[in-house]
Amino acid sequence: MDLLKIIDENGTEIYKQKYIPLRVHLEGYKEFADKFKIPISLTSNEAAATGLISRGYISMENLIVAYKTTGCILYLPKDLSDEQIEYVEEKLPYFRNLESDNKLFNVGIYSEEPLYYNNKKYRNLLMESKINGEGHIRELTTDLLIEELKKQKGKTL
Q1: Could you write out the three-class secondary structure of 118-133?
Q2: 8 A C-beta contact, residue 109 and residue 76
Q3: Do the Cβ atoms of 75 and 34 come closer than 8 Å?
Q4: How far apart are CA 32 and CA 107, in angstroms?
Q5: For the segment 31-55, what is each residue's pLDDT rounded down to a tens digit?
Q6: pLDDT digits (tens, 9 = 90+) for 92-112
Q7: Any idea what DSSP says for residue 61?
Q8: Is-above-0.90 flag for pTM?
Q9: Which one, of 139, 4, 129, 146, lies nearest residue 74 by Cα?
Q10: pLDDT by residue (tens digit) across 119-145?
Q11: Using alpha carbons only, what angle is made at residue 20 by residues 15 and 21, rounded to the nearest 5 degrees?
Q12: What is the torsional sign of CA 76, 77, 79, 84?
């Protein structure tokens, strides 16, 4: 069971951090940054993930407690490669299953400027769903991710 996966522009999982009780994502980000000599902020998971997606990587944080998956946060670069799109599409059944089991699934997409609604340098699809739904979740995050992938495919043609 993987706690953290990092995927490159070729859609290849180039780093996996195995789940071990009490191990945290930040340890995996540090290990990755050291191994690949990539300078990223290690002040938080969010900062590390944002640093990677700004460089074109995908970061997938599985939220695990006592060997049970409780959710997933997927961080995506602003512009995905065709191979990255394929990678994410292959994971759609996993994401859909999380949501059908009422587990957390959220997606952050890199933005060059901090956004007005979260002051972060990534779009938060779950938060955008709430804003667009006037306080009610308009769609499942997986549905919003599929919409985003369709838009991304249009960019890569």
Answers
A1: CCCCEEEHHHHHHHHC
A2: yes
A3: no
A4: 21
A5: 999 999 999 999 999 999 999 999 9
A6: 999 999 999 999 999 999 999
A7: E
A8: yes
A9: 4
A10: 899 999 888 877 776 555 556 889 889
A11: 140
A12: negative
